[in-house]
Amino acid sequence: MKIPFNKPYISPKEEEYIIRALKSQRHSGNNAFGQKAISFMKDKYGFNEIFLTPSCTSAMEMGALLAGIKPGDEVILPSYTFSSTVNSVVIFGAKPVFCEIEPNTLNIDVSMIESLITPRTKMIIPIDYAGISCEIEEIMKIADKNNIIVMQDCAQSFGGYFNGKPNGSIPHLAAFSFHETKNMNAGGEGGGLVVNVPEWHQKAYFMQEKGTDRRLVLDGVKSKYSWVEKGSSYLLSDLLAAGLLAQLEGEEEIISKRRLVTDAYCQLFNSFKKRGNLNIYISEDHIKTNHHAFWVVFDEADNRRRFIERLRAFDIFVYIGYMPLHSSPMGVKFGYKPDSLPITEEISKKVVRLPFYAGMADDGLIYTIERMSLVLNEIYGK
Amino acid sequence: MKIPFNKPYISPKEEEYIIRALKSQRHSGNNAFGQKAISFMKDKYGFNEIFLTPSCTSAMEMGALLAGIKPGDEVILPSYTFSSTVNSVVIFGAKPVFCEIEPNTLNIDVSMIESLITPRTKMIIPIDYAGISCEIEEIMKIADKNNIIVMQDCAQSFGGYFNGKPNGSIPHLAAFSFHETKNMNAGGEGGGLVVNVPEWHQKAYFMQEKGTDRRLVLDGVKSKYSWVEKGSSYLLSDLLAAGLLAQLEGEEEIISKRRLVTDAYCQLFNSFKKRGNLNIYISEDHIKTNHHAFWVVFDEADNRRRFIERLRAFDIFVYIGYMPLHSSPMGVKFGYKPDSLPITEEISKKVVRLPFYAGMADDGLIYTIERMSLVLNEIYGK
Q1: Average pLDDT value for chain A
Q2: CA-to-CA distance for A62 and B106, rounded, in angstroms?
Q3: How is the beta sheet containing B287-288 ordered, strand by strand?
């Protein structure tokens, strides 16, 4: 039996919706299914406004453009994240300022943020690793005090909550991923940008539509549209929005399947926690996970290696996670060295991400747990 | 009967391919259908390399990033084009330098380009208006002499030829649109970037994949990928690539239907050309059209207005075309005035684009021609 790291979930109504979108012959961006998906999300999650985009990366670029990121600006973000978090501002000339992570969530260490703020700091981009929200309310307090924009990278955390509020509803800007690898996917690729500042909405409409005021023409305010802003084509095909809508409607089903995976991993790893001196996430009352992922920080890099290799022999695909950005070739160009962020560097050498997808609950979870138990017993003794 | 300005064509195999892509559960970018579509295009059109992207806009942004466009660079382009042509370099800080168009094609006036070149000129972006190639070989000569990169905006011209060579195969970079409004569409939204400079390929792979060297991992050269470049997520969902492949396979059918539309418009407008002093494109031997669009420049703006209004009364949707970029709010910010480019300004007030889609050949073309003939007789007398 082969257990891939990820396998996208296909919703029952997905095929039907996608074909309806195709046959409508109006399947470019912001058409019928896109509008439905947007309404659904605004009603259910209370986003002030959300734009569907081709990817989370492009959502973050749109956010960076909206925030006016320009050469010379500094942006604070964790080094332990995907390259898109940083590239979304680096392509516009910003300088990344990397922050350490804290060990319970592997999210940005909020206690270090203020020491990194300079007069050039324009933005903070915290991420919600593995679907667990960062300490967004504390980050917003720091940002407001220092007049800094917060764009939350919620690539992994759609459908989770912080203090009872849906992820993405608290910061100025938030970006979601609906990629094949995420809880809910939009036909393989897709993203969304939440804009919670009402004064930015009109500019965002213009930026999404190639920098034109086409929106005013659609609203009947103007008769012809022209070039009024910087912008791009931050639009999601209606075929992909149709796929997303089917998944949004099936969220409860998806989450309940994924919860079983979390529960099984928790049970297994808790029983090895002391013996192996393993670090796994200890849940906190104010954060509700969306059951996106499960990670384990091993006691030693060598035990991680053994764990990965032994499971690979069972055809179970475990993943090492991110290479820290600060010590990557690009990070080094920005003046960082591996030991600039020792906690991140250390954790990244010991962490694994486990296979995690909705379908595992139906097929493969027991096989996976049994094999992992066997391997952990080999490593740490019975 | 209602004749919209555009109606996307759905290919016979499109639904089947899209559902196959969905059910593969590997439908993110650069998967099976994307690879097939890329091979198909490289074999048929001789592109050195082509990358499928979420839109033509994002293809051009990828091209701009690949060419190293940065603040202070100047880019020469026609003012008579869509906002994406200019935004793709303006978002990276470049200054647009607008060039006039010549009246037979409404493409960039090549004879004016050299007078606009300065030591800061980094790129020329000619467009192929209405699917008719610009004078790309002459532009390449000027560019090579001055060490300038050419990115051809082939948004409208996929499938056409210049001197027997497929559009997109001649310049350093070329961008295609597979949007709903184009001859061949990729599930509503899509684009492609041709990279004809082999030395740029590796960098392009990295930039398409969020600035990581994931490509080297897929090729077995490295075991883990990291952040090595600027980049974005310039990837087209495999669902959309599946739609595109179906359309590519049906190109002959699509073109033959569209040719009937060109022929009918040519016949009609040629018979009014002298009477109305109308300007329509006179075909040239070295250029083969892809039958994307048909435009007419009227003798007077007022006759254009009458033509549009009278046809609207018959439910036929004729479109005014582009608002020139140089005289738009953003163009003015860059220091231009309407009379900075008098030819462009004049033509833009008199030009119309006619309804044009493959399905017209089956239904609506005769109705459209009859009503247009009626209206032209009203305007210019029998």
Answers
A1: 97
A2: 32
A3: B165-166, B161-162, B287-288
**Which residues numbered 95-114 in A keep a CB inside 8 Å of some CB on B?**
none
CA distance B284 to chain A (A): 32
Residue B336 banded pLDDT, cuts 50, 70, 90 = very high
What CATH number is given to the structural domain containing B193? 3.40.640.10
Whether residues A189 and A83 share a domain: the answer is yes
**Domain around B112:** 14-249
- Which of B52, B84, B233 would you mutate first to test chain A, the one with the most A CBs within 10 A? B233
Q: What is the pLDDT of residues B27-43, one digit of tens each?
A: 999 999 999 999 999 99
Predicted confidence (pLDDT) per residue in A75-116, tens digit: 999 999 999 999 999 999 999 999 999 999 999 999 999 999
* Residues 207-246, chain B, touching A (beta carbon < 8 A): 210-212, 224-233, 235-240, 243
Q: Considering only CB atoms, which chain B residues are within 8 Å of A235?
A: 55, 189
Q: B151 and B48 in one domain?
A: yes
- Tell whether B91 is within 8 A of chain A (Cβ): yes
Q: What is the pLDDT of residue A355?
A: 97
Q: What is the mean pLDDT of chain B?
A: 97
CA distances from A95 to A6, A121, A123, A175, A323 (A): 33, 9, 11, 20, 19
Contact residues, chain B, for A224 at CB < 8 Å = 320, 323
- pLDDT tens digits for range B186-244: 999 999 999 999 999 999 999 999 999 999 988 888 888 999 999 999 999 999 999 99
Q: Tell whether the model's pLDDT for residue B121 goes beyond 90.
A: yes
Spatial distance between the Cα atoms of B123 and B11, rounded to a whole number of angstroms: 37
* Residue whose tokens read 């990344």: A96
Q: What's residue B217's pLDDT?
A: 85
Chain A residue with Cα closest to B92: A92
What distance in Å separates residue B177's CA from the closest CA in chain A? 11
Question: Which pairs from A248-255 meet CB under 8 Å and 24+ separation?
Answer: A248/A37, A248/A40, A248/A41, A248/A44, A248/A184, A249/A11, A249/A13, A249/A40, A250/A11, A250/A12, A250/A13, A251/A159, A251/A184, A254/A9, A254/A11, A254/A183, A254/A184, A254/A358, A255/A159, A255/A183, A255/A290, A255/A291
Region B129-149 average pLDDT: 98
Low-confidence ranges of chain A (pLDDT < 50): none
Q: For chains A and B, what is the number of CB pairs under 8 angstroms?
A: 212
Examine the domain organization and report whether A322 and A216 are in the same domain: no
CB–CB contact A228 B328 (8 Å): yes
Query: B54, A56: Cβ pair inside 8 Å?
Result: no
Distance from CA of A304 to the nearest CA of B (A): 15
Residue B82 lies in a domain: yes
Q: Do B87 and A188 touch (CB under 8 A)?
A: no
Nearest CA in chain A to B88: A232
When CB atoms are compared, the residue of A91, A224, A235 closest to B230 is: A91
Q: Is the CB of A262 inside 8 Å of chain B's CB atoms?
A: no
Is there a domain that residue A9 lies in?
no
Spell out which residues of chain B touch residue A86, defining contact as CB-CB under 8 Å. 227
Q: Do B53 and B43 belong together in one domain?
A: yes
- 3-state DSSP of B33-66: HHHHHHHHHHHHHCCCCEEEECCHHHHHHHHHHH
Q: What angle do CA A309, A310, A314 make, to 5 degrees?
A: 110
Q: Is B332 on the interface with A (CB under 8 A)?
A: no
Do A211 and A275 reside in the same domain of the chain? no
